[in-house]
Each structure stands twice: as structure tokens, then as C-alpha cells.
Amino acid sequence: MRAYLPAYQMKALPSLSETLEVMAHEPGVWQPFAGGTDLMVLLEAGKLTHKNYLCLWHLPELRNIEETPEYIRLGALTTYSQILRNPTLQRAFPLLCKAASETGGVATQNRGTLGGNIANASPAADSPPALLVYDAEIELISAAGSRQVPYHRFHSGYKQMDLRPEELIRAIRISRKMKHWKQYYRKVGTRKAQAISKVCLACAANVDGGLIRDIRLAVGSVAPTVVRCFQTEDLLRNNRLSPDSIRAARETLAREIAPIDDMRSTARYRLRVAQNLLAEFLGTLHSQ
Amino acid sequence: MPEGTQKVCISFRVNGRDVTCDTWPMARLLDVLREELRLTGTKEGCGEGECGACSVLLDGELVNSCLIPVLQAAGTDITTIEGLASGDQLHAVQEAFLACGGAQCGICTPGMVLAAANLLSRTPNPTEAEIRAGLAGNLCRCTGYMRIFEAVVQACQRTGIRS
Predict the structure, then answer these.
(1) Measured between CA atoms, how close is B56 to chain A, in angstroms?
(2) Which residues contact A18 (CB under 8 A, 6 or more apart)?
(3) Exposed end of chain A (fewer CB within 10 Å): N or C?
(4) Nearest-neighbour CA in chain B from A74: distance (Å)
């Protein structure tokens, strides 16, 4: 059933500080609204339970992309299209660009935002595995001040996150440390464009003469949140690639993820494909 | 607590004409275009941002009008399919769709034409892969896409960019 529109309120306040003031004054009453690519779907389906929204789309403070020698800072409203058009991101952050190019079609990429993708907290979202690999830090802001949270600690359960009712995601910082590492991103879905993933793996590894000096692994659509696979990373770090180490990595990965059967796939398929994607990535490291 | 929702007065530009309407802030741009402004060229397909039938250009960017709350359209410049031709002169993409048989039932066509026109404005001489990626958000259940892809290639030739 369609939503009853008079029940929904949306305001576009003139500045970020006014927006934060209203959120602080009436915590939980107002929720932020960015590009709308998730919330408007719920609205039309009559499933948008929250009723009062503060529009963020027009706020320039949330939109800029900043570069330093150590990291890139992406304003929360950075769209997938902006990611795809940014030459630094194209050069140094291929996983994020691949994720952006595989999120919806052009129209979705023009409105969907990185901050919205994080706050919507879908375990099947395309950008979070890439963000986890790049050691992302989430910058949160409220009227009282700001704080930073490592992204791998931000999501605590299905749609649960370390975000207070009066806080907004202001920006996402990603590390340039992996610039020269071997990187891999593969999303498996029913169709190349527009489909939500069944499994998605993002990885980066620093390999030296067959020895994995450092590695990052993150998987989407296989648990209540997107998962950074620390145990599999530990197993592979300072290890040499061999059929045995790859087999052990597949087994450890299976213990770190908890895929389920749902409308898009089965637990069995997701587990097998996640393992195969990891093996495919590790296979590419032999040549390094 | 927020006071009861009031209709808001929202102004924007559509196809070169300034318009103002009183509407609910979270009304879909799609519904405002079709029902308030009677611009029924923009179609509703899935209503959830998957099919692209409701595509319009908002400040020159392709968007799904079913996913835009009208409050976010305030002050913008919108082009719908009704505004793509210059008077009687069809846009090169429209001419090419006609010549190649790029439309059958017509529901996807307005969005498909706008997506193609938007692609060519950014990438005047696209590769086949770029055409497929540019139209990936617009679904067609009739043509099988090949005639649509041909039409985009022909539109490049019509504009004299591709030889």
C-alpha cells in the first residue's frame, strides 16, 4: 500500500549547524535524508516507518572530497558518480570505484551517497567491503562536537550501528596505505547491472616474493553486517602461498562468515562462492 | 515535536518553463510531473528505482523521478521527454530511435531516450561497453536492446561525431 503523504514531514534547513541543532534539540524525532535511493523505495511500498526527515542533499559541508598524503576524506554526500569521476580515486582506490560502478545504474549512482549507503546498513551494500579494506574511519558530527570511529567497529549487528540519534555521518576517511598493494573486488549477483549482490569480496594484499606481508579481506551479503575477516587475514599474514595455506584460508573464512538462505541466494551457494572468490584472489598473488 | 505537515510551495524549472506547485514535501517528483503538471511522458514502471522508466534530467543529471522527493527538486532545472526536442526538431536520439525501431510498447522509451541523450552529452562517441553501462539502469522487456544500442550508435552518426 502506498504511503499516506500528509503523515510525512521533510525540511531542508539552511545550514549544517541548524540541522544539527534541531537533531540535538529533538533527538530521535528527525532522521537525516540524503539521496533517497533507499528511503523512497520504502515510502512507495508503505514501509517507511519513520515520519520526520531533515534533508541533507543541499548541504555543501557534507559534499567535498579532500586529499592529504595519508588519506582521502569523502564527504558523506559523495555520490557514486562523483567517486567514478575523481581521478585520485580512480588511480589509488580501484575497489571503491569498482563498487561504485556496480551500484545500480547511472541514475542511482547520481543520487546514492556513500554516507547513505553506510547509514542504511544493508549487509548487501556494495561500497562497505571496499571501505573495510581501505581501513575507513567514519567521522561523526553532532551539535556537541565530532568523533571518529573505525569503520570495522561501526556496524554492531543487523541495521545496528554506533550512531547516536543526534549524530550525522559527516565524512569517511580512507587510507592510501594500500595504493601499491594487489587489489581485488568481485560482486556476484543475478545480473551484472542493477542486481543486489549474493556475495561480494574485496581484498588487498602486500606481497613480496611470494610472502604475504599484509592483507585485508572483507565480504558482503554473508552475515548480518559486512564482515572484515581478521582471522583469515591473520592466518595469511607473513605466510607463503601454497595449496595448504589456501585450503586453510578457505576453512578459516567459512568460520568467520554466517551466510543465510534468502530470496537472493542460499547459505551453501554463498559460502562456496565466498571461498572460491578468496581462492581466485590468492591465485592472482602467485604472479606477484 | 514537529507540527502537522503542511503542503509546501515548491518552484522549479521544467523544460524551460518556471513552475510552482503546492504539494506534500515527500511527494515523488514523478507524481508531481505527471499529475500536477500533466507531463505524462514520464512513465512509472517499477516505482523502486530499478527500471528507469521514470528517468528525467535534473540539473543535467539522469535521475529516477520515483526516488526524488519533490522538496529536493526545489530550485532545480528539469528536462523531461517533452522538453528534449527543439520545437518540431526531434533530438538526434529520438530520430535514431524512430529510424532503428528502438521502441515497441513505449513504456521504457522516454527514460531510455533521456538516458541515451545524457550518455552522449557526456561521452559523445561511446564504445559499445559504454553504451551498455550508460543504459544499464533502463530496462526494456520488448526490444531485446539490440535496436536500442543501434539507435545510440546511429545518433552519434547523426550528430556527425562518429563516422
Answers:
(1) 9
(2) none
(3) N
(4) 21
- State the cell numbers at B3: 507540527
Instruction: Please judge whether A111 and B67 are an interchain contact, meaning their C-beta atoms are less than 8 angstroms apart.
Output: yes
Confidence of residue A2 (pLDDT cuts 50, 70, 90): confident
Whether residues B76 and B97 share a domain: the answer is no
**Residue A76: burial class (beta carbons within 10 Å; 0-12, 13-18, 19+):** buried
Q: Which three cell numbers stand for residue B98?
A: 524512430
Mean pLDDT of chain A: 95
Q: Specify whether B54 is located in the same domain as B22.
A: yes
- Final residue of a domain: which of B83, B104, B133? B83
Contacts with A40 from chain B: Cβ below 8 Å: 28, 49, 66-69
| 3-class state of residue B114 by DSSP | helix
Residues of chain B neighbouring A193 (CB-CB closer than 8 A): 133, 136-137
CATH number for B36: 3.10.20.30
| pTM of the predicted model as reported, rounded to 2 decimal places | 0.95
pLDDT 10s digits, A89-122: 999 999 999 999 999 999 999 999 999 999 999 9
Q: Quick check: B46 contacting A, CB < 8 Å?
A: no
Number of helical (H) and strand (E) elements in chain B, helices listed first: 5, 5
In this prediction, the residues of chain B whose per-residue pLDDT falls under 70 are 1-3, 160-163
> Which residue range(s) make up the domain with B135?
92-158
Cell numbers for A178: 594500500
